[in-house]
Amino acid sequence: MLLPSLACLVYPDILNRNKTVLNSTPDTPLLFLFLQLIIAVVFLHVSALFSSKIEIPHWDLYTAKKLLPVVTINIVGLVFNTLCLREVEATFFQVRIWGFFSLSPC
């Protein structure tokens, strides 16, 4: 219950900050996305060091092959999302996201 409510408060601010950065540097949206992904991975590993509830799984080739389609679709979605955010107003995304959150207990 707390997490969707927190997301409803934090997401618009993050979205507006992303839009501001994309507007100020229109030639680097994919670099911006890549840096955000790297920061998220670093935070995940740092969190795993300080919490016993977070466990980083060990990867093998079989698992990587099985996850490749899902990861690829996720990356393509993030790229299109970033490129679309660069081209349209941030309110377009806020309407879309608020429609999603209206299904959750916000």
Describe the structure.
The protein is mainly α and 106 residues long. The chain has one domain. It has helices spanning 2-24, 29-50, 61-87, 90-101. Helix 1 packs antiparallel against helix 4 (90-101). The chain is globular, with a radius of gyration of 16 Å. The termini are close together.
Beta-strand fraction estimate? under 5%
Number of domains: 1
Order of helical and strand elements? HHHH
* Unreliable stretches: none
Helix content percent band:
over 70%
The backbone outline, from C-alpha atoms, is globular
Main β sheet profile: none
Query: What is the number of helices?
Result: 4
Give the C-alpha Rg: 16 Å
**Kindly, what is the distance between the CA atoms of the first and last residues, rounded to a whole number of angstroms?**
8 Å
SSE class: mainly alpha
Give the total of beta strands: 0
The overall average pLDDT, rounded, is 76
Question: What's the multimeric state?
Answer: single chain
What structural keywords apply?
106 residues; mainly alpha; 79% helix; globular
Provide the fold topology.
Elements: H1 2-24, H2 29-50, H3 61-87, H4 90-101
Helix pairs in contact: 1-4
Describe this structure in a few short sentences.
By secondary structure, this protein is mainly alpha-helical. The chain has helices spanning 2-24, 29-50, 61-87, 90-101. The chain has one domain (2-101).
